[in-house]
Amino acid sequence: MEQEKRRSQRDYSLAFKLNVVEQVEKGEMTYKQAQKRYGIQGRSTVLVWCRKHGLQDWRQPQGPSKRRAQMTNKPTKPLTPEQRIKELERQLKDEKLKSALFEKVIDIMRDEHGVSVKKRAGKLSVVVKSKD
């Protein structure tokens, strides 16, 4: 019978830990599900990673709904460079989605309603073409 190899926290890369923490914080899985899925042996290992690498503030115990709401707020502790990069990448993705939405709205306004939006000297102007 082959015994399972005991692993320590040093066996997991930072990228792996951050990925697991992100999945738990997004609600894609619970910490117990992550532990089982990835074969993490320690009962509190994933929780330790969440406290150390996550965006959630763990200083005050709270109910689940307050925790979820607080996860969207910026933490009071300074972010690690990896966390800051992840946060900026998320913000960039959100801004790209907003930009695509606005571009689509402008296209619809132009094509279906004859309204064009122009940018001049940093200001937007709306030109309505009359239908004859």
UniProtKB/TrEMBL annotation:
<protein>
    <submittedName>
        <fullName>Transposase</fullName>
    </submittedName>
</protein>
<dbReference type="InterPro" id="IPR051839">
    <property type="entry name" value="RD_transcriptional_regulator"/>
</dbReference>
<dbReference type="InterPro" id="IPR036388">
    <property type="entry name" value="WH-like_DNA-bd_sf"/>
</dbReference>
<dbReference type="InterPro" id="IPR009057">
    <property type="entry name" value="Homeodomain-like_sf"/>
</dbReference>
<feature type="region of interest" description="Disordered">
    <location>
        <begin position="57"/>
        <end position="82"/>
    </location>
</feature>
